[in-house]
Design a protein that fits this description.
Strand order of the largest sheet of chain A: 6-7-8-3-9-10-12-11
Mean pLDDT of chain B: 81
Helix content of chain A: 25-40%
Strand content of chain A: 15-25%
Shape of chain B: elongated
Radius of gyration of chain B: 24 Å
Largest sheet of chain A: 8 strands, mixed
Low-confidence stretches of chain B: 7-20
Radius of gyration of chain A: 21 Å
Strand content of chain B: under 5%
Largest interface: A-B, 35 and 23 residues
Largest sheet of chain B: none
Order of helices and strands of chain A: EEEHEEHEHHHHEHEHEEHHHEE
Order of helices and strands of chain B: HHHHHHHHHHHHH
Helix content of chain B: 55-70%
Distance between the termini of chain B: 22 Å
Number of strands of chain B: 0
Oligomer: heterodimer
Number of helices of chain B: 13
Distance between the termini of chain A: 42 Å
Chain lengths: 333, 302
Protein backbone atom coordinates (compact mmCIF):
# COMPACT_ATOMS: atom_id res chain seq x y z
CA UNK A 1 0.00 0.00 0.00
CA UNK A 2 1.40 3.42 -0.91
CA UNK A 3 2.05 5.87 1.93
CA UNK A 4 0.03 8.67 0.34
CA UNK A 5 -2.69 8.18 -2.20
CA UNK A 6 -4.51 11.18 -3.62
CA UNK A 7 -7.42 10.37 -5.87
CA UNK A 8 -9.30 12.83 -8.07
CA UNK A 9 -8.64 15.74 -5.72
CA UNK A 10 -10.49 18.93 -6.60
CA UNK A 11 -9.84 22.12 -4.66
CA UNK A 12 -11.73 25.18 -5.78
CA UNK A 13 -11.55 28.80 -4.66
CA UNK A 14 -14.89 30.52 -4.36
CA UNK A 15 -14.12 34.15 -5.17
CA UNK A 16 -16.17 37.10 -6.28
CA UNK A 17 -14.80 36.80 -9.80
CA UNK A 18 -16.00 33.20 -9.98
CA UNK A 19 -14.99 29.68 -8.98
CA UNK A 20 -11.28 29.17 -9.58
CA UNK A 21 -10.71 25.49 -10.27
CA UNK A 22 -7.13 25.64 -9.01
CA UNK A 23 -6.86 21.89 -8.49
CA UNK A 24 -9.24 19.91 -10.63
CA UNK A 25 -8.34 16.26 -10.87
CA UNK A 26 -5.12 15.37 -9.12
CA UNK A 27 -4.12 11.74 -8.67
CA UNK A 28 -0.87 11.00 -6.87
CA UNK A 29 0.78 8.06 -5.23
CA UNK A 30 3.80 8.35 -2.97
CA UNK A 31 5.58 5.16 -1.92
CA UNK A 32 7.21 4.78 1.51
CA UNK A 33 10.69 6.28 1.59
CA UNK A 34 10.56 7.50 -2.02
CA UNK A 35 10.62 10.96 -3.54
CA UNK A 36 7.81 12.13 -5.77
CA UNK A 37 8.56 15.23 -7.80
CA UNK A 38 5.66 17.44 -8.84
CA UNK A 39 6.55 19.73 -11.72
CA UNK A 40 4.59 22.33 -13.58
CA UNK A 41 4.65 26.01 -14.42
CA UNK A 42 3.60 28.81 -12.06
CA UNK A 43 -0.09 28.79 -11.20
CA UNK A 44 -0.71 25.19 -12.27
CA UNK A 45 -1.82 24.18 -8.77
CA UNK A 46 1.30 22.57 -7.32
CA UNK A 47 1.26 24.53 -4.08
CA UNK A 48 -2.51 24.31 -3.73
CA UNK A 49 -2.19 20.53 -4.03
CA UNK A 50 0.40 20.50 -1.25
CA UNK A 51 -1.63 22.79 1.00
CA UNK A 52 -4.75 20.70 0.30
CA UNK A 53 -2.94 17.59 1.53
CA UNK A 54 -1.91 19.50 4.66
CA UNK A 55 -5.40 20.98 4.88
CA UNK A 56 -3.80 24.38 5.42
CA UNK A 57 -5.78 26.39 2.88
CA UNK A 58 -7.98 29.16 4.25
CA UNK A 59 -11.62 28.10 4.06
CA UNK A 60 -13.32 30.16 2.74
CA UNK A 61 -12.39 30.92 -0.02
CA UNK A 62 -10.83 27.51 -0.68
CA UNK A 63 -12.70 24.24 -0.39
CA UNK A 64 -11.91 20.64 -1.27
CA UNK A 65 -15.00 19.88 -3.33
CA UNK A 66 -14.28 16.23 -4.04
CA UNK A 67 -11.65 13.55 -4.01
CA UNK A 68 -9.81 11.65 -1.34
CA UNK A 69 -6.45 11.95 0.37
CA UNK A 70 -5.44 8.71 2.04
CA UNK A 71 -2.36 8.76 4.23
CA UNK A 72 -1.29 5.30 5.38
CA UNK A 73 -4.85 4.12 4.87
CA UNK A 74 -6.37 7.02 6.79
CA UNK A 75 -8.66 9.49 5.07
CA UNK A 76 -7.46 13.05 5.72
CA UNK A 77 -10.27 15.01 4.06
CA UNK A 78 -12.75 14.15 6.81
CA UNK A 79 -10.51 14.80 9.83
CA UNK A 80 -11.38 17.60 12.23
CA UNK A 81 -9.01 20.52 12.72
CA UNK A 82 -8.03 19.07 16.10
CA UNK A 83 -7.15 15.70 14.61
CA UNK A 84 -5.27 17.41 11.80
CA UNK A 85 -3.12 19.28 14.32
CA UNK A 86 -1.92 15.89 15.54
CA UNK A 87 -1.12 14.72 12.00
CA UNK A 88 0.74 17.86 10.98
CA UNK A 89 4.33 17.77 12.09
CA UNK A 90 4.01 14.28 13.53
CA UNK A 91 3.03 12.33 10.39
CA UNK A 92 3.31 14.86 7.58
CA UNK A 93 5.45 18.00 7.69
CA UNK A 94 6.07 20.75 5.22
CA UNK A 95 8.99 22.93 4.14
CA UNK A 96 8.10 26.23 2.55
CA UNK A 97 9.63 28.08 -0.32
CA UNK A 98 11.12 31.15 1.29
CA UNK A 99 13.28 30.49 4.35
CA UNK A 100 13.50 34.24 4.98
CA UNK A 101 9.84 34.35 6.00
CA UNK A 102 9.18 30.82 7.25
CA UNK A 103 10.78 31.46 10.63
CA UNK A 104 9.29 33.73 13.27
CA UNK A 105 11.69 36.69 13.50
CA UNK A 106 10.86 37.38 17.14
CA UNK A 107 11.66 33.92 18.52
CA UNK A 108 15.03 32.20 18.77
CA UNK A 109 15.38 29.16 16.57
CA UNK A 110 15.80 27.05 19.70
CA UNK A 111 12.37 28.16 20.88
CA UNK A 112 10.87 27.31 17.52
CA UNK A 113 12.31 23.78 17.43
CA UNK A 114 11.56 23.10 21.09
CA UNK A 115 7.96 24.19 20.48
CA UNK A 116 7.40 21.35 18.00
CA UNK A 117 9.24 18.74 20.05
CA UNK A 118 7.23 19.55 23.16
CA UNK A 119 4.00 19.71 21.22
CA UNK A 120 4.21 16.24 19.68
CA UNK A 121 6.70 14.23 21.72
CA UNK A 122 5.93 15.66 25.15
CA UNK A 123 9.61 16.13 25.98
CA UNK A 124 10.53 18.32 28.96
CA UNK A 125 12.33 21.56 28.18
CA UNK A 126 15.85 20.30 28.83
CA UNK A 127 15.42 17.14 26.77
CA UNK A 128 13.78 19.11 23.97
CA UNK A 129 16.73 21.54 23.87
CA UNK A 130 19.23 18.69 23.71
CA UNK A 131 17.22 17.11 20.91
CA UNK A 132 16.99 20.48 19.12
CA UNK A 133 20.78 20.80 19.18
CA UNK A 134 21.12 17.28 17.76
CA UNK A 135 18.69 18.16 14.98
CA UNK A 136 20.60 21.32 14.05
CA UNK A 137 23.74 19.27 13.99
CA UNK A 138 22.04 16.70 11.78
CA UNK A 139 21.00 19.29 9.20
CA UNK A 140 24.56 20.61 9.09
CA UNK A 141 24.55 23.75 11.21
CA UNK A 142 27.95 24.27 12.84
CA UNK A 143 28.20 24.94 16.59
CA UNK A 144 24.58 23.83 16.92
CA UNK A 145 24.37 24.12 20.70
CA UNK A 146 25.48 27.77 20.76
CA UNK A 147 23.26 28.74 17.87
CA UNK A 148 20.05 27.62 19.57
CA UNK A 149 19.70 31.03 21.19
CA UNK A 150 20.21 32.99 17.98
CA UNK A 151 17.40 34.76 16.21
CA UNK A 152 16.64 33.86 12.57
CA UNK A 153 18.15 37.08 11.20
CA UNK A 154 21.58 35.84 12.26
CA UNK A 155 21.43 33.03 9.69
CA UNK A 156 21.98 33.11 5.94
CA UNK A 157 19.26 31.93 3.55
CA UNK A 158 20.71 28.45 3.12
CA UNK A 159 21.25 28.06 6.86
CA UNK A 160 17.71 29.19 7.54
CA UNK A 161 16.36 26.61 5.14
CA UNK A 162 18.35 24.02 7.09
CA UNK A 163 16.67 25.27 10.29
CA UNK A 164 13.27 25.08 8.61
CA UNK A 165 14.04 21.51 7.59
CA UNK A 166 15.20 20.70 11.13
CA UNK A 167 11.85 21.91 12.49
CA UNK A 168 9.95 19.92 9.86
CA UNK A 169 11.76 16.64 10.55
CA UNK A 170 11.93 17.14 14.33
CA UNK A 171 9.19 14.64 15.11
CA UNK A 172 10.24 12.17 12.43
CA UNK A 173 7.29 12.54 10.07
CA UNK A 174 6.88 9.79 7.49
CA UNK A 175 6.12 12.28 4.73
CA UNK A 176 7.80 15.61 4.06
CA UNK A 177 6.24 17.97 1.58
CA UNK A 178 8.83 20.41 0.25
CA UNK A 179 7.23 23.27 -1.70
CA UNK A 180 9.97 24.69 -3.91
CA UNK A 181 12.53 24.38 -1.10
CA UNK A 182 15.41 25.67 -3.20
CA UNK A 183 13.79 28.36 -5.34
CA UNK A 184 14.81 31.22 -3.04
CA UNK A 185 18.40 30.00 -2.65
CA UNK A 186 21.68 30.44 -4.53
CA UNK A 187 22.46 27.70 -7.03
CA UNK A 188 25.37 26.30 -4.99
CA UNK A 189 23.25 26.24 -1.85
CA UNK A 190 20.38 24.63 -3.77
CA UNK A 191 22.45 21.51 -4.41
CA UNK A 192 23.45 21.31 -0.74
CA UNK A 193 19.84 21.54 0.44
CA UNK A 194 18.72 18.89 -2.06
CA UNK A 195 21.52 16.60 -0.92
CA UNK A 196 20.50 17.16 2.69
CA UNK A 197 16.88 16.25 1.92
CA UNK A 198 18.02 13.13 0.10
CA UNK A 199 20.28 12.05 2.97
CA UNK A 200 17.49 12.56 5.48
CA UNK A 201 15.10 10.60 3.32
CA UNK A 202 17.46 7.62 3.18
CA UNK A 203 18.41 7.69 6.87
CA UNK A 204 14.87 8.01 8.11
CA UNK A 205 13.00 6.16 5.36
CA UNK A 206 10.90 9.29 5.02
CA UNK A 207 8.95 9.89 1.83
CA UNK A 208 9.28 13.29 0.16
CA UNK A 209 6.97 15.21 -2.13
CA UNK A 210 9.23 17.66 -3.91
CA UNK A 211 7.40 20.49 -5.62
CA UNK A 212 9.39 22.44 -8.17
CA UNK A 213 9.30 24.04 -11.57
CA UNK A 214 12.88 23.00 -12.17
CA UNK A 215 13.26 19.87 -14.32
CA UNK A 216 16.90 19.59 -13.30
CA UNK A 217 15.96 19.31 -9.64
CA UNK A 218 13.46 16.57 -10.45
CA UNK A 219 15.93 14.63 -12.58
CA UNK A 220 18.42 14.74 -9.75
CA UNK A 221 16.32 13.75 -6.77
CA UNK A 222 12.95 12.24 -7.71
CA UNK A 223 12.06 8.55 -7.95
CA UNK A 224 8.71 9.31 -9.52
CA UNK A 225 7.47 12.41 -11.27
CA UNK A 226 4.02 13.91 -11.64
CA UNK A 227 3.60 16.62 -14.25
CA UNK A 228 0.85 19.13 -13.56
CA UNK A 229 -0.89 21.39 -16.01
CA UNK A 230 -3.79 23.76 -15.31
CA UNK A 231 -4.85 22.04 -12.09
CA UNK A 232 -4.56 18.48 -13.36
CA UNK A 233 -1.98 15.73 -13.37
CA UNK A 234 -1.16 15.10 -17.01
CA UNK A 235 1.57 12.51 -16.58
CA UNK A 236 2.76 10.37 -13.67
CA UNK A 237 5.71 8.03 -14.18
CA UNK A 238 9.02 6.85 -12.72
CA UNK A 239 11.61 9.59 -13.25
CA UNK A 240 13.94 7.69 -15.57
CA UNK A 241 11.03 6.62 -17.73
CA UNK A 242 9.54 10.10 -17.90
CA UNK A 243 12.81 11.59 -19.08
CA UNK A 244 13.57 8.70 -21.48
CA UNK A 245 10.14 8.40 -23.06
CA UNK A 246 7.72 11.20 -22.21
CA UNK A 247 4.19 10.50 -23.42
CA UNK A 248 2.22 13.71 -22.93
CA UNK A 249 2.77 16.50 -25.47
CA UNK A 250 3.18 18.96 -22.58
CA UNK A 251 5.92 16.88 -20.97
CA UNK A 252 7.64 16.61 -24.33
CA UNK A 253 7.45 20.36 -24.78
CA UNK A 254 8.82 20.97 -21.27
CA UNK A 255 11.78 18.69 -21.90
CA UNK A 256 12.39 20.25 -25.30
CA UNK A 257 12.48 23.66 -23.62
CA UNK A 258 15.47 22.66 -21.47
CA UNK A 259 18.59 24.41 -22.76
CA UNK A 260 21.35 22.02 -23.78
CA UNK A 261 24.74 23.62 -23.30
CA UNK A 262 26.66 20.61 -24.62
CA UNK A 263 25.22 20.75 -28.10
CA UNK A 264 27.06 23.43 -30.13
CA UNK A 265 24.23 23.65 -32.65
CA UNK A 266 21.68 24.24 -29.87
CA UNK A 267 23.76 27.08 -28.51
CA UNK A 268 23.22 28.98 -31.74
CA UNK A 269 19.46 28.47 -31.81
CA UNK A 270 16.84 30.37 -29.86
CA UNK A 271 15.57 28.58 -26.74
CA UNK A 272 12.47 26.50 -27.40
CA UNK A 273 9.25 27.80 -25.84
CA UNK A 274 5.68 26.53 -25.60
CA UNK A 275 3.40 28.85 -27.58
CA UNK A 276 0.33 30.34 -25.91
CA UNK A 277 -0.61 30.67 -22.26
CA UNK A 278 -2.19 28.34 -19.71
CA UNK A 279 -6.00 28.56 -19.63
CA UNK A 280 -8.05 30.69 -17.29
CA UNK A 281 -8.97 28.42 -14.37
CA UNK A 282 -12.25 30.21 -13.72
CA UNK A 283 -13.51 29.12 -17.11
CA UNK A 284 -11.27 26.28 -18.31
CA UNK A 285 -11.75 24.64 -21.71
CA UNK A 286 -14.39 21.92 -21.48
CA UNK A 287 -12.23 19.18 -22.98
CA UNK A 288 -8.44 18.83 -22.91
CA UNK A 289 -6.93 21.80 -21.07
CA UNK A 290 -3.77 21.67 -23.13
CA UNK A 291 -5.60 21.60 -26.48
CA UNK A 292 -5.00 25.26 -27.28
CA UNK A 293 -1.22 24.81 -27.07
CA UNK A 294 -0.96 21.22 -28.24
CA UNK A 295 0.71 20.56 -31.61
CA UNK A 296 -1.36 17.39 -32.01
CA UNK A 297 -4.75 18.98 -31.38
CA UNK A 298 -6.98 19.22 -34.40
CA UNK A 299 -5.66 15.99 -35.86
CA UNK A 300 -9.15 14.65 -35.99
CA UNK A 301 -9.07 12.42 -32.92
CA UNK A 302 -11.64 14.53 -31.07
CA UNK A 303 -9.34 15.51 -28.20
CA UNK A 304 -10.77 19.01 -28.12
CA UNK A 305 -14.31 17.68 -27.65
CA UNK A 306 -13.95 14.95 -25.05
CA UNK A 307 -11.93 15.56 -21.84
CA UNK A 308 -9.17 12.93 -21.69
CA UNK A 309 -8.89 10.82 -18.55
CA UNK A 310 -5.75 9.84 -16.70
CA UNK A 311 -5.15 6.28 -17.94
CA UNK A 312 -2.49 3.70 -17.29
CA UNK A 313 -0.48 3.38 -20.46
CA UNK A 314 2.09 1.03 -18.96
CA UNK A 315 2.51 -0.21 -15.42
CA UNK A 316 3.22 2.89 -13.25
CA UNK A 317 3.00 5.18 -16.25
CA UNK A 318 -0.20 7.17 -16.36
CA UNK A 319 -1.01 9.90 -18.84
CA UNK A 320 -3.93 12.23 -19.59
CA UNK A 321 -4.06 12.68 -23.35
CA UNK A 322 -5.75 11.13 -26.37
CA UNK A 323 -2.49 11.03 -28.28
CA UNK A 324 0.45 9.83 -26.19
CA UNK A 325 3.76 9.62 -28.02
CA UNK A 326 3.74 5.82 -28.18
CA UNK A 327 0.27 5.68 -29.83
CA UNK A 328 0.70 8.58 -32.19
CA UNK A 329 0.04 7.99 -35.86
CA UNK A 330 -0.32 11.61 -36.86
CA UNK A 331 2.34 14.27 -37.20
CA UNK A 332 2.05 17.77 -35.68
CA UNK A 333 -0.50 19.87 -37.50
CA UNK B 1 38.31 56.85 7.85
CA UNK B 2 38.38 53.19 6.94
CA UNK B 3 35.39 51.34 5.61
CA UNK B 4 34.91 49.43 8.84
CA UNK B 5 35.01 52.65 10.81
CA UNK B 6 32.37 54.20 8.58
CA UNK B 7 30.26 51.09 8.84
CA UNK B 8 30.73 51.18 12.59
CA UNK B 9 29.62 54.82 12.81
CA UNK B 10 26.61 54.10 10.66
CA UNK B 11 25.63 51.20 12.86
CA UNK B 12 26.09 53.36 15.92
CA UNK B 13 28.77 51.13 17.43
CA UNK B 14 32.48 51.57 17.96
CA UNK B 15 34.53 50.50 14.99
CA UNK B 16 36.51 47.41 15.76
CA UNK B 17 34.26 46.39 18.60
CA UNK B 18 32.88 42.88 18.17
CA UNK B 19 29.37 42.96 16.72
CA UNK B 20 27.09 42.30 19.63
CA UNK B 21 23.83 40.49 19.39
CA UNK B 22 20.96 42.86 19.94
CA UNK B 23 17.29 42.12 20.24
CA UNK B 24 14.45 43.99 18.60
CA UNK B 25 13.82 45.91 21.81
CA UNK B 26 17.45 46.86 22.28
CA UNK B 27 17.53 48.18 18.72
CA UNK B 28 14.31 50.09 19.29
CA UNK B 29 15.68 51.56 22.52
CA UNK B 30 18.79 52.77 20.69
CA UNK B 31 16.70 54.38 17.98
CA UNK B 32 14.47 55.99 20.62
CA UNK B 33 17.45 57.50 22.40
CA UNK B 34 18.54 59.17 19.17
CA UNK B 35 15.23 61.07 19.00
CA UNK B 36 15.90 64.12 21.20
CA UNK B 37 12.32 65.37 21.37
CA UNK B 38 11.07 61.98 22.46
CA UNK B 39 13.82 61.62 25.05
CA UNK B 40 13.06 65.07 26.48
CA UNK B 41 9.35 64.24 26.57
CA UNK B 42 10.13 60.98 28.34
CA UNK B 43 12.26 62.76 30.95
CA UNK B 44 9.57 65.40 31.62
CA UNK B 45 6.95 62.63 31.80
CA UNK B 46 8.99 60.78 34.40
CA UNK B 47 9.65 64.01 36.36
CA UNK B 48 5.91 64.68 36.52
CA UNK B 49 5.31 61.11 37.70
CA UNK B 50 8.05 61.48 40.33
CA UNK B 51 6.59 64.77 41.51
CA UNK B 52 3.12 63.23 41.84
CA UNK B 53 4.49 60.34 43.85
CA UNK B 54 6.99 62.17 46.05
CA UNK B 55 5.58 65.67 46.66
CA UNK B 56 2.60 64.69 48.85
CA UNK B 57 4.85 62.47 50.98
CA UNK B 58 7.55 65.05 51.73
CA UNK B 59 5.37 68.18 51.70
CA UNK B 60 4.92 69.94 55.07
CA UNK B 61 1.43 71.07 53.98
CA UNK B 62 -1.79 69.11 54.40
CA UNK B 63 -3.39 69.30 50.93
CA UNK B 64 -6.92 69.31 52.35
CA UNK B 65 -6.41 71.74 55.27
CA UNK B 66 -8.63 74.77 54.83
CA UNK B 67 -7.18 78.08 56.12
CA UNK B 68 -8.86 81.16 54.73
CA UNK B 69 -6.08 83.31 56.12
CA UNK B 70 -3.75 81.73 53.55
CA UNK B 71 -6.18 81.99 50.58
CA UNK B 72 -5.21 83.29 47.14
CA UNK B 73 -1.46 83.45 47.76
CA UNK B 74 0.78 83.69 44.71
CA UNK B 75 3.83 81.48 44.26
CA UNK B 76 6.36 81.80 47.09
CA UNK B 77 9.11 79.72 48.69
CA UNK B 78 6.75 78.04 51.11
CA UNK B 79 4.03 77.58 48.45
CA UNK B 80 5.84 77.17 45.09
CA UNK B 81 2.55 77.09 43.16
CA UNK B 82 0.67 79.39 45.58
CA UNK B 83 -2.61 78.53 47.32
CA UNK B 84 -6.24 78.35 46.23
CA UNK B 85 -9.35 80.07 47.55
CA UNK B 86 -9.38 77.78 50.61
CA UNK B 87 -5.74 78.39 51.38
CA UNK B 88 -4.67 74.87 50.31
CA UNK B 89 -1.11 74.40 49.04
CA UNK B 90 -1.32 73.94 45.29
CA UNK B 91 2.09 72.30 44.94
CA UNK B 92 0.99 69.37 47.09
CA UNK B 93 -2.56 69.38 45.85
CA UNK B 94 -1.62 69.37 42.16
CA UNK B 95 0.66 66.40 42.81
CA UNK B 96 -2.21 64.56 44.49
CA UNK B 97 -4.51 65.55 41.62
CA UNK B 98 -1.88 64.24 39.23
CA UNK B 99 -1.91 60.89 40.98
CA UNK B 100 -5.62 60.62 40.32
CA UNK B 101 -5.55 62.04 36.79
CA UNK B 102 -2.62 59.89 35.67
CA UNK B 103 -3.91 56.89 37.59
CA UNK B 104 -7.30 57.10 35.90
CA UNK B 105 -5.50 57.74 32.61
CA UNK B 106 -3.38 54.60 32.82
CA UNK B 107 -6.22 52.56 34.32
CA UNK B 108 -8.58 53.43 31.49
CA UNK B 109 -5.84 52.97 28.86
CA UNK B 110 -5.09 49.48 30.16
CA UNK B 111 -8.80 48.69 30.18
CA UNK B 112 -9.04 49.91 26.58
CA UNK B 113 -6.06 47.77 25.68
CA UNK B 114 -7.43 44.70 27.42
CA UNK B 115 -10.84 44.83 25.80
CA UNK B 116 -9.45 45.94 22.45
CA UNK B 117 -6.84 43.18 22.27
CA UNK B 118 -9.26 40.40 23.16
CA UNK B 119 -11.96 41.64 20.80
CA UNK B 120 -9.59 42.45 17.94
CA UNK B 121 -7.52 39.28 18.28
CA UNK B 122 -10.58 37.01 18.24
CA UNK B 123 -12.09 38.86 15.33
CA UNK B 124 -8.92 38.82 13.26
CA UNK B 125 -7.82 35.31 14.14
CA UNK B 126 -11.11 33.49 13.66
CA UNK B 127 -12.05 35.54 10.60
CA UNK B 128 -14.97 34.70 8.37
CA UNK B 129 -18.50 35.21 9.60
CA UNK B 130 -17.58 35.90 13.20
CA UNK B 131 -15.13 38.60 12.12
CA UNK B 132 -17.81 40.13 9.95
CA UNK B 133 -20.36 40.15 12.77
CA UNK B 134 -17.93 41.59 15.32
CA UNK B 135 -16.80 44.31 12.93
CA UNK B 136 -20.34 45.34 11.97
CA UNK B 137 -21.16 45.55 15.69
CA UNK B 138 -18.11 47.78 16.10
CA UNK B 139 -19.27 49.94 13.19
CA UNK B 140 -22.55 50.49 15.04
CA UNK B 141 -20.71 51.40 18.27
CA UNK B 142 -18.38 53.68 16.34
CA UNK B 143 -21.06 56.31 16.09
CA UNK B 144 -21.25 56.67 19.88
CA UNK B 145 -19.92 60.04 20.99
CA UNK B 146 -17.20 59.39 23.53
CA UNK B 147 -17.83 62.00 26.25
CA UNK B 148 -21.65 61.97 26.31
CA UNK B 149 -21.39 58.20 26.53
CA UNK B 150 -18.96 58.48 29.45
CA UNK B 151 -21.38 60.84 31.22
CA UNK B 152 -24.23 58.44 30.53
CA UNK B 153 -22.20 55.54 31.87
CA UNK B 154 -21.44 57.45 35.08
CA UNK B 155 -25.12 58.30 35.46
CA UNK B 156 -26.10 54.66 35.05
CA UNK B 157 -23.46 53.41 37.50
CA UNK B 158 -24.61 56.07 39.95
CA UNK B 159 -21.42 56.59 41.93
CA UNK B 160 -18.29 58.45 40.95
CA UNK B 161 -14.95 57.16 42.17
CA UNK B 162 -11.63 56.12 40.68
CA UNK B 163 -12.86 52.81 39.28
CA UNK B 164 -16.16 54.03 37.87
CA UNK B 165 -14.22 56.81 36.13
CA UNK B 166 -11.94 54.18 34.60
CA UNK B 167 -14.96 52.25 33.34
CA UNK B 168 -16.75 55.35 32.04
CA UNK B 169 -13.72 56.60 30.13
CA UNK B 170 -12.82 53.24 28.56
CA UNK B 171 -16.30 51.98 27.72
CA UNK B 172 -16.64 54.01 24.54
CA UNK B 173 -13.01 54.31 23.47
CA UNK B 174 -11.67 50.80 22.85
CA UNK B 175 -13.00 50.57 19.29
CA UNK B 176 -9.92 51.94 17.56
CA UNK B 177 -7.60 49.68 19.53
CA UNK B 178 -9.74 46.65 18.66
CA UNK B 179 -9.54 47.56 15.02
CA UNK B 180 -5.79 48.14 15.09
CA UNK B 181 -5.20 44.78 16.78
CA UNK B 182 -7.51 43.00 14.33
CA UNK B 183 -5.64 44.55 11.42
CA UNK B 184 -2.31 43.49 12.90
CA UNK B 185 -3.47 39.94 13.50
CA UNK B 186 -4.84 39.63 9.98
CA UNK B 187 -1.59 40.90 8.48
CA UNK B 188 0.55 38.69 10.71
CA UNK B 189 -1.67 35.68 10.07
CA UNK B 190 -0.63 35.73 6.41
CA UNK B 191 3.04 35.37 7.32
CA UNK B 192 4.73 32.19 6.19
CA UNK B 193 5.96 31.48 9.70
CA UNK B 194 2.40 31.31 10.97
CA UNK B 195 1.55 28.83 8.25
CA UNK B 196 4.81 27.00 8.98
CA UNK B 197 3.91 26.76 12.66
CA UNK B 198 0.50 25.36 11.75
CA UNK B 199 2.16 22.96 9.31
CA UNK B 200 4.00 21.30 12.17
CA UNK B 201 0.86 21.00 14.24
CA UNK B 202 1.16 23.90 16.68
CA UNK B 203 -2.24 24.31 18.33
CA UNK B 204 -4.31 27.37 17.42
CA UNK B 205 -4.02 28.98 20.85
CA UNK B 206 -0.23 28.59 20.77
CA UNK B 207 -0.16 30.12 17.29
CA UNK B 208 -2.16 33.06 18.59
CA UNK B 209 -0.30 33.42 21.87
CA UNK B 210 3.26 32.72 20.76
CA UNK B 211 3.42 33.71 17.11
CA UNK B 212 0.84 36.46 16.70
CA UNK B 213 0.23 38.46 19.89
CA UNK B 214 3.90 39.02 20.83
CA UNK B 215 4.42 40.57 17.43
CA UNK B 216 1.72 43.14 18.18
CA UNK B 217 3.50 44.30 21.36
CA UNK B 218 5.22 47.18 19.58
CA UNK B 219 1.91 48.48 18.33
CA UNK B 220 0.34 48.04 21.77
CA UNK B 221 3.08 50.06 23.48
CA UNK B 222 2.48 52.85 20.99
CA UNK B 223 -1.26 52.56 21.55
CA UNK B 224 -0.81 53.13 25.28
CA UNK B 225 0.71 56.53 24.68
CA UNK B 226 -1.74 57.37 21.89
CA UNK B 227 -4.78 56.61 24.05
CA UNK B 228 -3.44 58.16 27.25
CA UNK B 229 -3.87 61.85 26.23
CA UNK B 230 -7.46 61.35 25.13
CA UNK B 231 -8.39 59.63 28.36
CA UNK B 232 -6.62 62.21 30.55
CA UNK B 233 -8.32 65.04 28.68
CA UNK B 234 -11.65 63.24 29.01
CA UNK B 235 -11.19 62.88 32.75
CA UNK B 236 -10.22 66.54 33.06
CA UNK B 237 -13.24 67.55 31.05
CA UNK B 238 -15.66 65.54 33.18
CA UNK B 239 -14.10 66.79 36.44
CA UNK B 240 -14.12 70.39 35.18
CA UNK B 241 -17.85 70.03 34.56
CA UNK B 242 -18.23 68.72 38.12
CA UNK B 243 -19.17 65.24 36.86
CA UNK B 244 -15.90 63.65 37.86
CA UNK B 245 -13.86 63.33 41.01
CA UNK B 246 -15.64 64.68 44.12
CA UNK B 247 -14.09 67.10 46.62
CA UNK B 248 -12.09 67.04 48.77
CA UNK B 249 -10.25 64.67 46.42
CA UNK B 250 -8.70 66.51 43.53
CA UNK B 251 -7.89 65.80 39.94
CA UNK B 252 -6.37 68.32 37.58
CA UNK B 253 -9.76 68.85 36.01
CA UNK B 254 -11.53 69.61 39.31
CA UNK B 255 -8.66 71.90 40.36
CA UNK B 256 -9.06 73.89 37.16
CA UNK B 257 -12.75 74.15 38.03
CA UNK B 258 -11.77 75.54 41.48
CA UNK B 259 -9.80 78.29 39.77
CA UNK B 260 -12.51 79.24 37.32
CA UNK B 261 -14.31 81.80 39.56
CA UNK B 262 -11.23 83.90 40.26
CA UNK B 263 -9.40 83.43 36.98
CA UNK B 264 -8.93 87.17 36.42
CA UNK B 265 -7.58 88.10 39.84
CA UNK B 266 -5.75 84.86 40.63
CA UNK B 267 -5.01 83.09 37.35
CA UNK B 268 -2.41 80.74 38.84
CA UNK B 269 -5.15 78.54 40.36
CA UNK B 270 -6.51 77.58 36.94
CA UNK B 271 -3.22 77.86 35.05
CA UNK B 272 -1.25 75.35 37.12
CA UNK B 273 -3.51 72.29 36.68
CA UNK B 274 -4.16 73.25 33.06
CA UNK B 275 -0.45 73.50 32.40
CA UNK B 276 0.08 70.13 34.05
CA UNK B 277 -2.55 68.54 31.78
CA UNK B 278 -1.15 70.20 28.68
CA UNK B 279 2.43 69.21 29.48
CA UNK B 280 1.51 65.61 30.18
CA UNK B 281 -0.58 65.29 27.02
CA UNK B 282 2.16 66.86 24.93
CA UNK B 283 4.76 64.51 26.42
CA UNK B 284 2.56 61.46 25.77
CA UNK B 285 2.15 62.48 22.13
CA UNK B 286 5.89 62.99 21.70
CA UNK B 287 6.60 59.64 23.35
CA UNK B 288 4.07 57.88 21.11
CA UNK B 289 5.71 59.48 18.09
CA UNK B 290 9.19 58.47 19.22
CA UNK B 291 8.07 54.93 19.97
CA UNK B 292 6.51 54.58 16.57
CA UNK B 293 9.68 55.66 14.83
CA UNK B 294 11.77 53.44 17.09
CA UNK B 295 9.65 50.32 16.76
CA UNK B 296 8.94 50.61 13.06
CA UNK B 297 12.00 52.28 11.55
CA UNK B 298 10.74 51.77 8.00
CA UNK B 299 8.09 54.47 8.47
CA UNK B 300 10.72 57.17 8.93
CA UNK B 301 14.27 56.39 8.02
CA UNK B 302 16.54 59.39 8.51
Amino acid sequence: MPLLEVADLRTHFFTRAGVVQAVDGVDLTVEKGKTLGIVGESGCGKSVTALSIMRLLPTPPARIVSGSIRFDGRELTTLSERELEDVRGREIAMVFQDPMTALNPTLTIGTQIVEVLQRHLGLDHGAARRRAAELLDEVGIPRARERLDDYPHRFSGGMRQRVVIAIAIACEPRLLIADEPTTALDVTVQAQVLDLLDDLRREREMAIVLITHNMGVVAESADDVAVMYAGQIVEHAPAHELFASPEHPYTEALLAALPDLDDPAARERRLAAIPGRPPDLIDPPPACRFAARCPYAGCGDGCALEPPVLRELRPQHRVRTTHPASERTTVPA
Amino acid sequence: MSVTEIAGRLAGVDAGAPIRQSSLWQDAWRRYLRNRGAVAAGVVFLLILAWCVVAPIVSPHDPNRIAFSDAYQGPSWSHPFGTDQFGRDLFTRAALGGRISIGIGFGATLAILGVGVVYGAISGFVGGKLDNALMRFLDALYGLPYLPFAILALAIIGTVNFWTMVVALSIASWFITARVVRGQIITLKENDYVRAARAVGVRWYAVLGRHLLPNTLGVLVITIFLELPGVILGEAFLSFLGLGINPPDASWGSMAQDGRDAYRAHPHIIVIPSLAIATLVLCANFIADGLRDALDPRTKET
